[in-house]
Write a structure and sequence with these properties.
With 240 residues, the chain is an alpha/beta fold. It contains 10 helices and 6 strands. Bound molecules: uracil. Uracil (URA) binds next to helix 5.
């Protein structure tokens, strides 16, 4: 099999869904061009190969999503933010942590969970025998709300499509939602985290474990035990 197939897609470079999508486009393109079967002669393959080299496919990547976000002006948070906090970690992660919104330090650095809550999240990740480089960390919204207020519905609505695209590209096996906003937004519910945590839910076909937000744990250390129970369930499922 040639290293780069005629349609120009490099296997392994993109996720399976994007690959299938490109193959579908390519077959449609052939059908529209009048193709009703396959001629695999040397000459035809050469022609098809040259099409692949000329044609560019816009397969989805985190870089493309970041580029589409640009210097985002889709909501009013653009007026007060310093940096867009896109997300950080491994684009092949099996586990994605979704928080609420960047805080002061995240806004300064453009990196999620680098303040006090972030340091606790790092310890939680280590407690499940992973590192920050092995998971992906992001938030429901990518810009800091003034004075760390809760994100408003219009801000979530503007930002959520980008998060969904990030998750679709990474295609993790598991998501851990941190706190009320992340949990209720992804699960489209108004149930409190206290009733949702401790068991798996579904988002885009991915298993979701809701748990308390690390910032909440800093104020309510008695809830750490619950988070540890949630993390043990996550670990068991990931290793099973
Ligand atoms: N809290 C969040 O929800 N996200 C961050 O990135 C930092 C603090």
């Amino acid at each position: 099999m040639p290293e780069t197939p005629c349609c120009g897609i490099k296997p392994g470079e993109e996720n399976l869904a994007a690959l299938i999508e490109e193959i579908k486009h390519y077959f449609n393109f052939l059908a529209q061009a009048g193709c009703r079967g396959f001629d695999c002669s040397e000459k035809s393959l050469e022609i098809v190969k040259s099409w692949g080299e000329k044609r560019t496919f816009a397969a989805e990547t985190l870089e493309k999503i970041r580029a589409d976000l640009g210097d985002c002006r889709r909501c009013k948070l653009c007026e007060t933010r310093k940096n867009i906090v896109f997300g950080a970690g491994n684009f092949r992660a099996g586990l994605v942590f979704v928080g609420e919104a960047p805080g002061f330090e995240e806004d300064q650095k453009g990196v999620p969970f680098v303040g006090a809550a972030g340091r606790l999240l790092t310890r939680i990740i280590q407690a499940i025998h992973l590192t920050r480089d092995q998971v992906y960390i992001c938030n429901i919204i990518k810009c800091r709300p003034p004075k760390n207020r809760n994100p408003m519905p219009d801000e979530i609505e503007s930002c959520l499509p980008f998060l969904k695209r990030q998750i679709a590209v990474i295609r993790p096996d598991f998501i851990c939602t941190l706190g009320t906003i992340a949990t209720q937004t992804l699960l489209e519910t108004e149930e409190p985290v206290s009733r949702l945590r401790g068991r798996f839910h579904d988002f885009m076909g991915i298993k979701v474990m809701p748990t308390y937000h690390p910032a909440y744990l800093l104020r309510n250390s008695d809830k750490k035990r619950d988070v540890w129970e949630d993390m043990k369930k996550l670990m068991e499922a990931m290793n099973g």
